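It is worth pausing here to work through a concrete case rather than discussing structure prediction in the abstract. The textbook approach is simple: state the sequence, then state the predicted structure, then interpret. We follow exactly that order.
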Amino acid sequence: MKHLAEHRKGILFVAFAALLWSSGGLLIKLVTFEAMQISFFRCAFASLTFFAVFRTQIFKANVFTIINSLFYASVLILYVLAMKATTAANAIFLQSTAPIYVLIFEPLLIKTKYEKINIISVAAVFIGMILFFTGKISPEHFEGNIYALLSGVFFAALFLGLKKNKPEYQFSSIFFGNVIVALVCIPFLSGITNVNFSNLWMVAFLGIFQIGIAYIFFSRGLKRVNAIEASLISLIEPVLNPVWVFLGYGEVPSLTAIIGGIIIISAISIRTFIMKSPTMKARLKRD
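Step two, the predicted structure:
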């Protein structure tokens, strides 16, 4: 009974984290600061949040910690740049292709063979990605789509890097990643305008809740549920992100973006289910 209660708590923790993550698109759209200025405040508040919760524990680092923090810093900056330059649907769905890059590069790094289901999944996601670049697209949106794709690539690199490092260094990588972004973005504050309560509370929410509190809840939820559950529950973020932007900002994603997003999310979900099934596990072990 206690185990069941802990499992339910884990599901709620991960769902709450994904819900907080999904707020990023709308708030970034509404804040009138430039992308690098948003990144400064967002990551400065996130850094303070992590320090307030973990204190000196987050200063524990090794070489992999620094490398992973650079990957994460790239994800943070590219995500904001993408949200400002293209639609929220394009930004979040293209970033969500990160697991596919893991499937491509993980066998190269740890010398495992490519599974047929992974090849099919990669092909399906690439079809979905192509749809984001079809039809009438402005140069600004094209640039934003590239930012989003790169964000997904660095997200995959972060995932692989965290797997290479010990679990106790995980929060340190996230903390230092936010610190790096805040430091890099300081020069962009010189021309800042519209410093008002509306903008400040939104960037504070982005840092404290959308990054800091969300990541803390996710990590604690991950201790109570298995990886497949966490992965699937986390898909709440890319699904709800463009919905909040539509309701609060009036941005309507293109039909091709919606179709592409459905293909990407479906391919990742189906692949996750299949690879975690007892039958597939037995076959892989046998092979």
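Step three, interpretation. The CA atoms of residues 38 and 61 lie 27 Å apart. The mean pLDDT is 86.
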